[in-house]
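Whiteboard transcription, Tuesday session. T.W. wrote the structure tokens on the left side:
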């Protein structure tokens, strides 16, 4: 029997099969198999939402997962340090979802305030995992009148698909509905930006809990506590994920990062040194482009901050 993992709660793995969720468990031998990548760092998850699985049904209605076929791709991030487990200077890879077509990177105009550095990290994470990122700027009903759409214009000019959305006015919802058809889409973003609220408008099958923004901190509260997959039709799936405080792409070095900042990658071809990191080297075309306002300072600053947080070791 074949199914798809819809959610995972403790040791219970919920597998969607013929419109029903079946509680499954991993076969013992699968638990003993360490999942290694070429970089020799362990995954923190053997199985993840979005995985297709082969399973056998038990007499009591539960199932046993016999095989996890190879993933087409997967979305992941650098996991927080695990005390007493990870080696000094090394970080594990935390899987978010598997077999993903679109990664919807959700940010908000306000409450919580738009943060371009967080968005840039989500974009790098999505693209480095071989998924297609789509930017959703939510809560557009909070946009002040006559205020220029600076961020919308900036990311659109870079070639990203950007959607202005609001569950209050329903702006952008139909556009999202059209994009997700026939695809597996995952929604990521900070707590409180409105991921679950958007998903609730996409289909009546989705009924995710939502909460108010903390007035004291202007930040969202965690209402989605685990990733969950929803099947909207035979070939359309959406995955809601818990809000993240931070997200860092996994397995990238300083040299890799440039590739995922599109405007920097183009200009970097004119740098004096092929290994230029665009931070301190002489005759750096990128730094010159920033000074001449060809590259937006906000994007360059975001690039620098991301480079600073990357592990110095070679993966």
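and on the right, the sequence the group agreed on:
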């Amino acid at each position: 029997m074949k199914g798809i993992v819809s959610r995972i709660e403790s040791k219970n793995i919920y597998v969607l099969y013929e419109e029903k969720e079946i509680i499954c468990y991993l076969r013992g031998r699968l638990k003993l198999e360490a999942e290694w990548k070429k970089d020799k760092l362990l995954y923190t998850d053997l199985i993840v939402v979005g995985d297709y699985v082969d399973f056998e049904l038990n007499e009591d209605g539960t199932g046993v997962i016999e095989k996890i076929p190879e993933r087409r791709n997967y979305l992941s991030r650098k996991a927080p340090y695990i005390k007493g487990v990870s080696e000094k200077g090394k970080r594990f890879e935390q899987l978010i979802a598997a077999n993903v077509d679109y990664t919807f990177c959700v940010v908000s105009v306000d409450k919580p305030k738009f943060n371009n550095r967080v968005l840039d990290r989500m974009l790098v994470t999505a693209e480095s995992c071989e998924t297609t990122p789509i930017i959703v700027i939510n809560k557009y009903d909070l946009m002040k009148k006559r205020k220029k759409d600076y961020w919308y214009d900036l990311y659109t000019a870079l070639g990203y698909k950007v959607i202005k959305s609001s569950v209050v006015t329903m702006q952008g919802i139909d556009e999202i509905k059209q994009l997700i058809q026939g695809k597996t889409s995952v929604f990521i973003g900070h707590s409180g930006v409105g991921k679950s609220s958007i998903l609730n408008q996409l289909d009546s099958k989705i009924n995710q809990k939502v909460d108010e923004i903390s007035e004291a901190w202007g930040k969202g509260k965690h209402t989605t506590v685990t990733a969950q997959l929803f099947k909207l039709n035979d070939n359309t799936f959406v995955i809601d994920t818990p809000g993240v405080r931070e997200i860092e792409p996994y397995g990238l070095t300083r040299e890799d990062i440039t590739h995922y900042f599109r405007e920097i990658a183009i200009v970097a071809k004119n740098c004096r040194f092929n290994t230029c990191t665009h931070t301190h080297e002489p005759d750096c075309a990128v730094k010159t482009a920033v000074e001449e306002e060809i590259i937006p300072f906000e994007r360059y600053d975001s690039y620098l901050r991301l480079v600073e947080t990357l592990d110095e070791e070679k993966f």
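Someone added at the bottom: The mean pLDDT is 87.
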